[in-house]
């Protein structure tokens, strides 16, 4: 049985047995917050439990490292939609210790791409087209700096509602302990 078959078979059972009932809620976040965090496997449930966030409480945006790549990337768009369309009144940027993006070098990722069959000329063509692939694929040195940088981009965004607090935190992926990096109420 493939993973897809396994998931579809479980899903059929889940729906038939009305496993969804405890999770029924609306698209508006009851706690009026939007969280931007990392896609790390260790914090799928841990982050929510450690923050007392339940289904229906928050809008959640995730990517590798909780990194805003540009003020007009899809993450920033998601945050703006959460604020202006979906009643999120606070933003929480939450990085985590031991993140896969810590110390990640773009050239390492490009090396793995080549090993798996991406042609050197494809990379060259994209580079000639003006894409800095190495920079695009590079992570960060310190998670606190990355969180601060993302908070700064959000806070200073020209389309941002200046009354919305933007907090920066770092979570321990084992214990769930949150360390405050930026208190958005004070900035
Ligand atoms: Zn991470």
Secondary structure layout:
Elements: H1 3-16, E1 33-38, H2 46-51, E2 58-63, H3 74-85, E3 90-96, H4 106-115, H5 120-128, H6 133-136, H7 143-155, E4 166-171, E5 178-182
Parallel strand pairs: 1-2, 1-3, 3-4
Antiparallel strand pairs: 4-5
Task: Describe what you observe in this structure.
The longest helix has 14 residues, at 3-16. The N and C termini lie far apart (53 Å). Strands 2-1-3-4-5 form a 5-stranded mixed sheet, with helices on one face. The chain has helices spanning 3-16, 46-51, 74-85, 106-115, 120-128, 133-136, 143-155, and strands spanning 33-38, 58-63, 90-96, 166-171, 178-182. β1 (33-38), α2 and β2 form a beta-alpha-beta unit. The protein is globular, with a radius of gyration of 19 Å. It has 7 helices and 5 strands; from the N terminus they run αβαβαβααααββ. With 187 residues, it is α/β, with parallel strands linked by helices. The mean pLDDT is 96. The protein has 2 domains: 31-99 and 141-187, Carbonic anhydrase (Beta-carbonic Anhydrase, Chain A), CATH 3.40.1050.10; 105-138, no CATH class. Bound molecules: zinc ion (ZN). Zinc ion (ZN) is lined by residues 38, 40, 65, 96, 99-101.
């Amino acid at each position: 049985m493939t993973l897809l078959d396994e998931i579809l078979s479980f899903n059929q059972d889940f729906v038939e047995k009305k496993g969804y009932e405890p999770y029924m809620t609306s698209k508006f976040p009851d706690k009026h917050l939007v969280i931007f965090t990392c896609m790390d496997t260790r914090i799928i449930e841990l982050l929510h439990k450690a923050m007392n966030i339940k289904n229906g409480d928050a809008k959640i945006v995730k990517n590798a490292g909780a990194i805003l790549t540009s003020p007009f990337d899809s993450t920033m768009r998601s945050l703006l939609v959460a604020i202006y369309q979906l009643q999120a009144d606070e933003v929480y940027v939450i990085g985590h210790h031991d993140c896969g993006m810590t110390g990640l070098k773009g050239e390492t990722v490009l090396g793995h791409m080549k090993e798996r069959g991406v042609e050197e000329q494809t990379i060259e063509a994209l580079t000639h087209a003006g894409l800095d692939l190495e920079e695009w694929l590079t992570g960060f040195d310190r998670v606190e700096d990355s969180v601060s940088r993302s908070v700064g981009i959000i806070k200073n965004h020209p389309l941002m509602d200046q009354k919305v607090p933007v907090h920066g935190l770092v979570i321990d992926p084992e214990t769930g302990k949150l360390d405050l990096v930026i208190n958005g109420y004070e900035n």
